[in-house]
Amino acid sequence: MLPLHPLLGAAACGAGAAYAMAAAWLSRRPLPPWRAGLPAVSGFDAAPLESSAVANVAVTVLKPLRGAEPRLYDNLASLCRQTHAPLQLVFGVREADDPAIAVVERLRADFPDCDIALAVAPEIHGRNLKVSNLVNMMPLAKHDYLVLADSDIVVDADYVARVTAPLADPATGVVTCIYRGRALPGLWPSLGVQFIDDWFVPSVRIAHAGGSRRFAFGATIALRRDALTAIGGFNAVAHRLADDFWIGELTRQRGLSTVLSDVIVGTDVTETGIGSLWQHELRWLRTIRSLNPAGFRFLFITFTWPMLLLGLAAAATPLTWTLAAAGALARSVLAGSAAAALRAPVRDSLLLAEWLVALTGSRVTWRGQELAVIDADPPRPHLNSFSTHNNLAQGMTPDRTP
């Protein structure tokens, strides 16, 4: 046993247990559904919206593609089964021989009533190739309500209707969704799902419960065309690795709010080996560090099993054993199944190792590209008439938080 003070042991076990209990509780509470007339962010007043304002409006879904990913057809087909209308689907690839094109053509054949457009354009507009794809796709977008979603996302039939409803409120900038992992068979995909379900989602729910709205996730970003234009279009984030975060942040800087939808989508976890899983999660963690360096240093509190073991190693007193037992129980509840609970110590230890490595280094690998993680706050553009009008109308000032 390490010769450390019992208070250190109690503090480590207590912090780990408290976080696990909060995470387990919040993760099992449904997010409140958005309703017309309710403020998107607590503390902002919002006038009731007319019922016609939340009726079906024309929507364009933008889906940048690259390669024939596992389950790609099923994921894209879930958009073709939407109850919302009118609806346009715009897909985009950079290369004329991209295997994803065959999947889009199959969708056109299987869903002839769907309005499907495909952009094939190699032009590069910045270091983020996904954003370059979006820039090339925008000329095909017919409608003013836009939904961006990653290619590995699967959705329910009411997805578009629900995620676009908050856009009827002029105070809303973006609507975004949390997501749950869908594993391919095997240990490593299962551990990858737990990175999302046991760590990422609870951290978002805790931040959201604490009042934070500084997020936007590539799983879904819904926004109006005028809001996108106000921030400079997709070109404004073409050099950003964390393009999803910055789309949300730039709208927040214009006084528009971020809505965390109650819709939860599914995302595929396809990494079948430790190398690919490590690379993927290390990219996520280094990106988080670039966006919030100070907060990143304290992420170790969220690694439940290492925190509990550290506390017991420091002082195996009745108090630390009680706290550790409470933390282990909460972590097992958070895992959601006996098999996942048994994997949790491995999952949390792997996350700790990735975090230690992510404390240093400034490069990541993404879809075969090696990129520098540069996501400092860009210079703030002058507010245009659109944002100034909305700030005055809502009685808000732009968020200048870096």
Characterize the structure shown:
By secondary structure, the protein is an alpha/beta fold. The chain has two domains: 100 residues, no CATH class; 240 residues, Spore Coat Polysaccharide Biosynthesis Protein SpsA, Chain A, CATH 3.90.550. It contains 14 helices and ten strands. The strands form two sheets. The protein has an eight-stranded mixed beta sheet with strand order 3-2-1-4-7-6-8-5, with helices on both faces. It has a two-stranded antiparallel sheet with strand order 9-10. The longest helix has 23 residues.
Write the layout of secondary structure elements.
Blueprint lengths: L5 H22 L31 E6 L7 H9 L6 E7 L6 H11 L4 E6 L8 H9 L7 E4 L4 E2 L4 H6 L7 E12 L3 H23 L11 E4 H6 L12 H10 L4 E13 L4 H18 L1 H4 L7 H11 L3 H18 L2 H21 L4 E4 L2 E4 L12 H10 L8
Parallel strand pairs: 1-2, 1-4, 2-3, 6-8
Antiparallel strand pairs: 4-7, 5-8, 6-7, 9-10
Helix pairs in contact: 1-6, 1-11, 1-12, 2-3, 6-13, 9-13, 11-12, 12-13
